[in-house]
Amino acid sequence: MGQLSLVFLLAVLWAAECGVISTQEPVGSGSCVDYGQEFDRVYSVPGEVVILECPLSPAETPFNVTWYDDRTGSEITDLEQNVTLRNTQVWFFNVTLQQQGKYTCVVRTAGGDCYKKSTGLVVTEMSSENCERPQKGLQRVRAHGNDLLVCPLRRYLESVDSPSIRWYKNCDLLREDEKFAPNKDMLNILQINPDDAGAYTCTMSFLLAGVVREMAETIECEVVDDNLNKPQVIEPVNETIKVENGSSFGKDCVVHVRGKGVVMVNVVWAQLESEDVFISKNTSQRVHQKLVSKSQTEDGYRIVQRLLLSAVSEEDFYLNFTCIVSSSRGYLTGQITLVPPDPNLFLLLGLLLGLVALLFVSGVLLCTVFKVELALCVRTVFPFVYKTTEGDGKQYDAYIAFPRVLEGSSEKAEIFAMSTLPQVLEGQYGYKLFILGRDGLPGEAVVDVVQDALSRCRRLLLLYTAASLCSPEALEWAEQQTGLYQALVENSMSVVLLELEEIREPLLLPRAVRLLKDKQGALQAWKRRKRWPFWDRTSEGSVSSLKPSARFWREVRYRMPVRGKAKQRNWFSF
User: Fold this and answer.
1) What would the CATH number be for the domain defined by 382-559?
2) Nearest-5° angle of CA 90, CA 91, CA 97?
3) Rounded CA separation 422/433 (Å)
4) 484 Ramachandran zone, left/alpha/beta (phi>0; psi -120 to 50)
5) How far is CA 107 from the centre of its chain?
6) E-strand stretches of 225-299
7) Model confidence over 383-407: pLDDT tens digits?
8) CA distance 56 to 69
9) Is the Cα dihedral 312, 316, 320, 325 positive or negative?
10) How many Å separate Cα 494 from the centre of its chain?
11) Phi first, then psi: what are they for 428, rounded to 5°?
12) 136-224 shares the fold of 17-123
């Protein structure tokens, strides 16, 4: 049975050249919810009656409807000539070419809601000598049987008084006979054959305010004589496709029609959210479509229509590009939606891990290179995080030990120990030092003094030169100071080695000193950076004018006891 193919009408509308419709905002509708433009246009010729039906029908009542002419943005009223308003419709009694355009229906509800939607009116002069109207809808009927055509004006039957419909083929009035059987808004065609194809016009006469008015629509009737099945859309099937912004893109709409006969299938890409609706076939445009192939297969036909985007833009994302397939057996659709690709999580993860690794390596390097500086800075800025040395039973921060049994470098080491070291550590940084010969009482036994002093000191600073510990006299001196020897061998307290000269033969050092140096190293007061002179050139290799670097003093301070402010807590007191 033949039926009005809405999709085919879409194809006809797309190809039709319509007048330019103004996009001026109707006055008083700026805050309304805009539903765009109705897809179906209303077609007419000058001099006829045209009825525009408001495409909105809110469920809430009561409501009122206002019509606006989008060309001027002004409201349409009954005061205009040959125009009247009836319920939700606007009537043009004697339409003219100048009235072609877009008209907006605005619905306002009692609850304060507002909605609007537009309808396009196309008015075209009659140019056919065969009584065919410029705009026609397509309906198909099947051969070798009975079928019918439906008058498109049937939607207005309840809106007019005393309607009467007549059918014409070309310019000839059709009356009931063995071939045609008009039945109000339908025309029955009996025993259809290919000669029955052509243009059929249905005219509707009716009374309006006591005056007879007329409307008409033309139908292009096609006779289909085939055994083809309903088309199948192979692809796309509601696909979501990820595509890069700015890249080119193409997608095929593949349609398969099984059976044999004349293929009457229309395949077209559309963007239903756009006013233009159908994608252009102009290949020079950024978004266009083209027919790739229309071929016969073993069991039917295959049609491929391709959608092409030369450069995807952001405005293309999240739009539905729809492939519409229409035939006498109905219509099908398949759509795609373009979305931007997901971020490369592996790349982001790699960058994040790389950044973390870089920060970690940088932190390790900084802590390694500037460990001493960072520690001293924290001690100075945050002394309250370190426990105070008060109450630990110690009187001195460090015991200064150096051999004084030889002449030469040992005498000069004594100058450094008795003068330079106290000036810096005591004078500048406030440490309290015990120096044998300066702080001991005269006449006391050396062994007793050393043992007593060491018991009251927190650190042991051992100063030595190339010769001061590399001789039997030096060993005898160390053995005489039993407490010093125990501190070195038994590791009973923290020992800091201060090396005042470069030791070229380390095997001559006492075994305890060598082991301690191998374990924790020695602070080398003689070593300076190459770009800075580390000796007074007046006495090459002498320690009399030894000027240790600032880093040497920082390392000495780093190994000295931390004088914090946090008090000791007795966890067993209540």
Assistant:
1) 3.40.50.10140
2) 110
3) 7
4) alpha
5) 38
6) 232-235, 239-242, 249-258, 266-270, 287-297
7) 887 888 787 888 899 988 887 655 5
8) 17
9) negative
10) 59
11) -95, -35
12) yes
The architecture that CATH gives domain 136-224 is Sandwich (2.60)
Q: Is the pTM of this model over 0.70?
A: no
Q: Which residue in 535, 559, 336 sits closest to 462, CA to CA?
A: 559
Neighbours of 312 (CB within 10 A): 19
- Tokens describing residue 294: 């229309």
Q: Peptide bond preceding 472: is omega within 30 degrees of 0, i.e. cis?
A: no
Q: Which two tokens stand for residue 572?
A: 């067993």
Secondary-structure class of domain 17-123 per CATH: mainly beta
Q: Give the three-state DSSP class for 567.
A: coil
Q: Residues 255, 324: contact at Cβ < 8 Å?
A: no
- In contact, 136 and 12? CB cutoff 8 Å: yes
What does the pLDDT read at residue 8?
A: 39
Distance, C-alpha 39 to centroid of its chain: 34
Q: Which CATH architecture has domain 232-339?
A: Sandwich (2.60)
In this predicted model, what pLDDT tens digit does every residue of 292-324 receive, in sequence order? 998 988 888 899 999 999 999 999 999 999 999
Q: Would you say 560 and 431 are in contact if contact means Cβ atoms under 8 Å apart?
A: yes
Q: Please report the DSSP string for 437-488 in residue order.
A: TTSSPTT--HHHHHHHHHHTEEEEEEEE-TTTSSSHHHHHHHHHSHHHHHHH
For the chain, what are the domain ranges? 17-123, 136-224, 232-339, 345-380, 382-559
**Two structure tokens written together for 190:** 């009996």
pLDDT of 444 reads: 66
Q: Is the pLDDT of residue 435 over 80?
A: yes
Q: Is residue 169 a contact partner of residue 200, using CB atoms and an 8 Å limit?
A: yes
Report the relative pairing of strands 457-464 and 396-401 from DSSP bridges. Answer: parallel
